[in-house]
Amino acid sequence: MPKKGSRLITVDGVAFRWRVRHKPAYCQGSGWSPLSFSAERAGEEPGSVLVVSLPCARPDNWAGARTITIRPRLVAGCIRRALEQGWSPGSAFTLTVDEDDLTTLLGEPPQYLVPFLWGMIPEGGGVEDLPRCVQIRSGED
The pTM is what? Predict the structure, then answer.
């Protein structure tokens, strides 16, 4: 996993690095593949990577599918879950998180967002939930 763009997190006294891919792969951008991130112990040799697959699309998906923000609390929960399920140094591991797991890992129901023209709105929200934006004038003036 490249160090550039990764973030450090300490889980139960152990340092890890985690990262979301900078640009979406075509399948991720289309909303066909889920949002995912990778993690590894800081300073470990390559190959001991954890890949976590979440039950939603990337925020920059082109289809307007719902998404969430990956926060350190979720990353730490996923790392703990993978360690419980047998992820060990020196081995690659894939963790697939479903809707129920997401609530457990976050400690609360997830707050989904939906991409909408100028930004993101909460799932079930409306245009009034968008931040103020500047109206672009037409060329008819």
Answer: 0.76
